[in-house]
Specification:
single chain, mainly alpha, 434 Repressor (Amino-terminal Domain), about 0% strand, rod-shaped
Length: about 170
């Protein structure tokens, strides 16, 4: 199991730091944590150790905890965006291959399935973290319009020419 809370967040020093950062006094923090205010005062006097759960609750409300969450979200969004770009590029390459096969007039039983291949349009560019550069290029190669047929070997070209001649001869 993967835990996101930092291991170093515990103890009275962190508790005081988060309490000061949030700007709460013992009464406010006790209401937020759902404990009696005397409990918070005992923690601050170091009469009893502060439970790690209380420190973590304040950590996630502090600027450090929110920053940690925001960073994880932005990194995941960037990763997912790159995966979508890669899939769009792979789709375009597969579409180009189908177009190349059509240009060779190699009829097949499943050819009607490829008659209408949808165009994947680029959606609006991401607006998250626009001040920071993406770890990978955000500008994937643009989709090819009117793609040229895929290159074929000379042997395949000769075979297609022979097939065309045989078809022409059959129609006479």
């Amino acid at each position: 199991m993967f835990f996101h809370a930092p291991q170093s967040v515990y103890g009275i020093d962190c508790f005081r730091m988060f309490m000061d950062e949030i700007g709460g006094d013992a009464v406010t923090v006790s209401r937020y944590l759902g404990v009696h205010e005397n409990t918070v005062r005992r923690w601050l006097r170091e009469a009893t150790p502060v439970p790690r759960e209380a420190v973590l609750a304040l950590f996630w409300e502090s600027k450090w905890g929110r920053s940690h969450i925001f960073t994880d979200q932005v990194n995941e969004i960037r990763l997912l965006y790159r995966q979508v770009c890669i899939l769009q590029d792979q789709y375009q390459k597969a579409k180009d291959i189908v177009t190349g096969l059509r240009a060779m007039h190699a009829g097949s039983a499943n050819e009607p399935l490829f008659e209408e291949l949808p165009d994947l349009v680029r959606w609006q560019e991401p607006t998250f973290g626009t001040e920071a550069a993406l770890p990978l290029s955000a500008d994937p190669s643009p989709p090819l319009q009117d793609a040229q047929p895929a290159p074929v070997s000379t042997r395949a070209a000769q075979a297609m020419q022979a097939l065309d001649r045989a078809r022409a001869a059959a129609h006479r």
